[in-house]
Amino acid sequence: MTVVHAENFPVRNRLAELGLSVERIEDALRKAESERNFCTPLDPVSLPGNIFWGRTIRFLRETYIPDGWSSASPSNVPLIVAPSGNFAITASSGSPETGYAALSPSTRYAKGNAVMKRVEANRQLLLFGEAEAEPEQQDAGDGIPTWFLLYHHSKTDQGTRLHAELSFPNDTGSRGKISSWYERIILPWIDFEGGFTPFVDEDGDDGDGGIDIPIERLS
């Protein structure tokens, strides 16, 4: 059964155990939204989502690296790694269920092999413990548990609402979408008045190693 933290104090306490806070995560998301708002209807439809995803990663890194966290991108999966080196965080757009404690979200898009290997490492950790879950490392951030900062934009009468949660996947799911979670930390939603709304339902391709398509030379 998934462990869900949704009330104020449990959420804050669990984040504090991870070295995080609601306010600092919200600040990174607000900054990413500001960058997203520079888009116009003349931009490619996926650009606002791509910008929001990329800037979320950047602003989380800028926020926490001074506290001893580090930046890593093994197999092109962008991470922010905890000072202990025991876990990492990445970001991904989520389904409309994101941020609702009573519902079960998934990633919005299918993920590629690099991301799925990280989820498999999470599963191995939960089954066998850290010693069995950690393979021989090749790049910084490899072989450690990975949390996902999921987010989803929706329209409101006043503008845009952003739902988000920090969640720990424990299985790869089906069709490439991650939909099974061991633990979820539900963050307060954020309302943005006005701003960019034409493509609010398009959170864009996360650019984090989507579906891998083998390419072979025709003989």
Give a structural overview:
By secondary structure, the protein is α/β, with parallel strands linked by helices. It has one domain (3-193). It has 5 helices and 7 strands. A hairpin with a 6-residue loop joins strand 3 (79-81) and strand 4 (88-93). Helix 2 runs antiparallel to helix 3. The radius of gyration is 17 Å and the shape is globular.
Determine the N-to-C terminus distance: 51 Å
Number of alpha- plus pi-helical segments: 5
Helix content: 25-40%
Rg from alpha-carbon coordinates: 17 Å
In the predicted model, the low-confidence regions spanning at least 5 consecutive residues are: 131-135, 209-219
Helix and strand string, N-terminal first? EHHHEEEHHEEE
C-alpha geometry: globular
Q: What spatial order of strands do you see in the largest sheet?
A: 1-7-6-5-4-3-2
Keywords, separated by commas or semicolons:
single chain, about 220 residues, alpha/beta, 7-stranded mixed beta sheet, 5 helices, globular
